[in-house]
Amino acid sequence: MDEKLRIDKYLWAIRLFKTRSQAADACDKGKVKLHGQNMKASKPVNIGDVYEVRSEARKWVIEVTGFLPKRVAYSEAIKFYKDITPPEALDKVHFEAASFHTGKRLSKVGRPTKRDRRDIDEFLDGGPEEA
């Protein structure tokens, strides 16, 4: 089989990245490596290649076992690669909430809601306010 498949398209198809542009960005930023060398998004994938892939949430070491040109369900996608990530690398990874990086505050944390503010005012004034 003489197929050529770009690394960014392959990483997207096996569901390591949500979009193909995220996979291409990861390649451009040096987060996808083959034998310690950074990979460009346009490089072809070969069966048996072992890639190190880093994202914000996780690090993978995967071995290519087949070509997958289209994005398919996760249960099908896992048949086209072998996850050989060492267990000690899995222990180092810790997940932070996505809202941590956006600058948005978490729900029910921080400033009081309008209802909370009324309850606080009522408590401090010593009872329900009469107009």
Automatic annotation (TrEMBL):
Molecular functions per Gene Ontology: DNA binding; ribosomal large subunit binding; single-stranded RNA binding
Transmembrane annotation, as ranges: none
Tagged with keyword Repressor: no
Any Pfam family hit: S4
Statement: the UniProt record of this protein carries the keyword RNA-binding: yes
Acidic residues biased stretches: 122-131
Stretches the record annotates as Disordered: 106-131
Entries under PROSITE patterns matching the protein: S4
Assigned keywords, A-Z: DNA-binding, RNA-binding, Stress response
BP GO terms, sorted: cellular response to heat
InterPro entries the record matches: HSP15, S4_RNA-bd, S4_RNA-bd_sf
Family statement: Belongs to the HSP15 family.
Annotated protein name in UniProt: Heat shock protein Hsp15
Species assigned in the record: Arachidicoccus rhizosphaerae
